[in-house]
Amino acid sequence: MVAVSHMLEPIFGNATVEKILLFLTRYESGYASGMAATFGVPVNGVQQQLRRLEEGGVVVSRLFGRVRLYQFNPVYPFLDELRALLEKAFQFLPPEELDRYYMGRTRPRKPGKAL
Hints:
Blueprint: H1 9-12, H2 15-27, E1 29-31, H3 32-39, H4 43-55, E2 59-64, E3 67-72, H5 79-90, H6 95-102
Antiparallel strand pairs: 1-3, 2-3
């Protein structure tokens, strides 16, 4: 398995936070088990970091049925700067990591749904 680069880990203090923020930058929203499956990491670690990010106001969540969906908090005061940093980080990710983690869908398409 190719590891996701940890270029932002020193800033965020945690590789899982880096993965979550890059994921949300690319896909706009996501749920903990989907993120964990994408990166092959334990879901409890992702949930813990999502809780921390939510407590800090960086992300917000809402329930859809039994699934908690996370996205960036639109009123986070540093959101534009954070997004700019994360978008810049994509320029430095190896192409195989971009393809593997950030260019695909996070869940299967509903049968019969138009492309």
